Amino acid sequence: MWSLFLFDTTSGRLGRQLPLPALSWTRTIGDSTILGGGQGSQGAKLTFPVGVFDVEGQRPHPVDLHSTLMPVERGVVLMWADRPWVAGLIGDRSDSREEIAFPVESLTSSVLSRRLASPDLTDGLATSTRGWSGLGRGTLVKRVVQAGLERGGLPITFDEDEAGPHSLTVAGYDLANARVSDLIRKISHEDGGPDVDLRPYLTGDGTLAWHLYTGRDAYPHIRQVTVHAITEGMLLDLRQVVSGAQVAHRVYGTGSGTGEGTLLSRIQDLDAVRGGWPLMETVASDTSADTQAQVDAVAAAHLAAHKAPLQQWEATINAGGPIPPTTIWPGDLVTLDVAGFPTIEDGRYQVRVMEMSGDTSELVRLKFDATPAIY
After folding, report:
1. pLDDT per residue as tens digits for the range 253-285
2. Rounded to two decimals, what is the model's pTM?
3. Which architecture does CATH list for 2-106?
4. Which positions ≥6 away from 79 have C-beta within 8 Å?
C-alpha cells in the first residue's frame, strides 16, 4: 500500500502519482531520507524510465517535463495507505535519453539550511539584532522557523506556544550562524533540549503540509497519544547488539587552559572492576569548562553515560499490522514483549523508537534507543 506522488514545494499541491522504483526509506527524530535502490553513482537516486512520464501515450513537451521535475521547486512524498510518511524535495537531477534520476532531500537540508533567522536586511544589518525571550525551548525552535518563513512561505504548521525561561538572540553581523537549520540543531542539542520533527500530512483540501512537532521543557520528547504494544506475535524478527567499546570506569576530564595550567578532573566508579571487569579509562574534554566544578561535571556526565555496556534492540514488524507507519513515529515509546530469546529474559519492556526504516515491502524495521545492558 505504498504510493509515491509529486508535489509543489511552496503550495503543497499534489501532482501525478509515480510508479514505485526500487527505494528504501529511513525516518529518525528530525530527519528522513528516501534513497534509490540502484548501484554505483546513481545508487542513492530514484531512477525512472523516461516513459513513465508520458501522458496518454504522449511524451510531454521537454519544457513541461523539465518544469514538472525541477529540483527544489518540486518534491516527492511516499505515502502508506494514502497518508504521507516521508516527503522531500527533488535534488540535483540527472537526465539521459532512457531515464531520469534524482536524489530526495529533506526540507531541513534543502530549504531550511538556506533560510536565515537574522534581522531584516537593512542598511543597519550588522548592528541590528533579533531575539526572543520568556519561551520554552520548543517555542524558540518555532520562532526560528517562523523567522525563516518570513522570507518566503512554506506549508508548515506549529504547536501552541509555551512560556519558559529561555531566550535566543541572533546578531545581524553573525550571518554564518543564522541558518535556520543550524539554530534548530543548536537548541535541540542543548542539555534538556527538545526533540524536533517535521512530519508531513494532508490538509483538508488534500494538499501536502508539514507540522513542526517539538518537545517541551518539562518533557523534551514529542507528545504521543498512545503507547503502542508490540506483542510477541507481531515480531517478525528481533535482534540485539551488545557493546562494551565505550565502557569507562574512570574518566579524566580536561577543561580550559594550556600545558600545566589545564584544568583536570578524575571521576570513577569501580564497582564493576571489583566485580571482575578489567579497569577501563578514558578522557572527556570540554575547553569551555573554565572552573573545577564544570570540569568535574564533564567527567561525571561521561562516566554516568558509559559505566556500563550498552544493548540496542532492533525489531521487524509488518506495516499492514496493528501499528502501521503514521501511527507510530521515531521518538515514541512502545512496549515490547519478548519471549524465548536466548540472551533477553522473558518479559515486557518499555523502549523508545530511535529509527524506522524500510523499502517498498511491508517490512518495517524499528531500532530502539540503546540502554545499559541488563545482566
Report:
1. 999 999 999 999 999 999 999 999 999 999 999
2. 0.91
3. Beta Barrel (2.40)
4. 2, 3, 4, 5, 85
